[in-house]
Write the structure tokens for this entry.
Amino acid sequence: MDNPQPEIRNRKSEDAPWTRKDLLGIRELSVAELTHILDTASAFKEVGRRTIKKVPALRGMTLVNFFVENSTRTRTSFELAAKRLSLDVVNVSATASSLAKGETLKDTAHIFQANGADIIVMRHSSAGAAHFLSTRLRASIINAGDGAHEHPTQALLDTFTIRERLGRVAGLNVLILGDILFSRVARSNIHALLKLGARVTLCGPSTLVPRAFEQMGVTVTHDLDSVLAEADVINLLRIQHERQRKEYFPSLGEYTALFGLTKARAARLKPSALIMHPGPINRGVEIDSDIADGGRSVILEQVTNGLAVRMAVLYLCAGAR
Ligand code: CP
């Protein structure tokens, strides 16, 4: 019995109906909506363990995977998720599109829609780009990362991984370490973790983790060694050089000395602590290479869970249309 349709349809849709055609960010989601996506992803993860992993749920619909900024994980994950749902998929990158000839984002997206796109997954370097399209198109718009604003499916797959590994999110101490200022992953994670009841601590250089973040309801520290032992989860972020306009710390060597997850620091974590990273990793900078590949690292598990989470997001948003 490889057709999962009945199980998927019978999820808790009466308790927490999903009515959004778009997924633009985590900030605007209710706790019920967040939980509904995670529960739906659990059902799709189960489907992924079957011999035949492809389901006819969205057969006849078309998805455009529109990446105006580079990506490995998110782009391949959305493409595979779409194919498993039997969507027709078209991949478009900025350099291979007429954006490079001066066509506007809106005109480009209207071309996709005129060609029958039901869903547009978009990554863009400008915050708000996904929201801009969502108000102008009938197609579902899924934000695959917009500037330093939000990366909702990354936060969903991160919280899914925490929930699956540790059995809950509420009450956990989650330490997010690194370049918070320029990180859309951090913002989406903060919204998701706080809504689900976790305690969030941000750590990194004061230039990249300003005290202003405390207004979101998190704790800010610049002393990693004082908070390591309390963490149930440590989520490491890379330095986002592509978004920085000046130097925020003296050198990578100094960054690693003060904020890198070295072997010595990893030894001070709880034995049960999860080590996470959204990728791409800069080995030897924010994380020791052996720790990244070690037993407490769930970095590749995050990638695997991303597939189920993205299937859930596509399924729910397409259904809401
Ligand atoms: N985590 C993440 O967004 O990775 P990519 O840039 O490879 O998609």
Q: What stands out?
A: The domain at 31-151+306-320 is CATH 3.40.50.1370 (Rossmann fold). The chain has two domains: 31-151+306-320, 152-302.
